Amino acid sequence: RRRSAGSQGAGPPGSMLLADTSHLQSAVRKAEIERQYSHLLLYLDRLSAITSQAVLVAGFSIVGLSADSLQALGGDADPGSESSADLCTQVYVLLTASATALSIWGVWT
Predict the structure, then answer these.
(1) What is the DSSP letter of 44?
(2) Considering the entire predicted model, what is its pTM?
């Protein structure tokens, strides 16, 4: 029997199918890696936006704790009397310090 000229050097009968399957599997793996990479970039962009906002809030909170702001809250109350201005000042300091702490915690996590 004679072999046809086209079948010389062609490997085993299923080698082309195996090569196509391997190529498709590698293409699927590459697409999955690209999808995961784009998700990672999306999460990093979100984290960057949240961090920027947290830094701004922390900066404004620290400015809110300055002596001028606290003195403006105190008003013209008598130094020896307990007044609602003192309570407002304490609440203001507590809320500003909480906002600063939460913002800094958001930056570091």
Answers:
(1) H
(2) 0.45
